Amino acid sequence: MGSHRHTQVSEALAHLAGDFFAREAANPSVNGLITVTRADLTDDFKNVVILFSVLPQTMEEAALKFAKRARSDFREYVKKHTLFHPVPLVDFEIDYGEKNRQRIDELTRK
Q1: Which SUPFAM superfamilies does the protein's record reference (predicted)?
Q2: How far apart (Å, rounded) are the C-alpha atoms in residues 84 and 87?
Q3: Quick check: 20 and 34 in contact, CB under 8 A?
Q4: Residue 25 pLDDT
Q5: What dihedral do alpha carbons 13, 60, 27, 9 form, nearest 10°?
Q6: What is the residue extent of each domain of the chain?
Q7: With 0-12 CB in 10 A as exposed, 13-18 as middle and 19+ as buried, what is 51?
Q8: Does position 29 have pLDDT exceeding 70, yes or no?
């Protein structure tokens, strides 16, 4: 089973998305900190959902809109910086699991 390759590609896509946002999120419409938490790649390598968290939380909606608008730009970025073929179709979502973990950490620290 090609699970090692699957993990490598997922991690590479998450890393690329982090770099992409670091560059692109200097965009004035997103004055929040976008942190890519992981990439969920389908088993056939054709689709990927990049999950991220945003600080402050009030910027989540703007960041998600920005990310969804940037999908084709991000695919071009992946094409330029990797040899992946084909480049998976990309979607972006807020990582609510990460958000819940942060909230639990916060509550257990009190």
Answers
A1: Ribosome-binding factor A, RbfA (SSF89919)
A2: 6
A3: no
A4: 61
A5: 0
A6: 3-109
A7: buried
A8: no
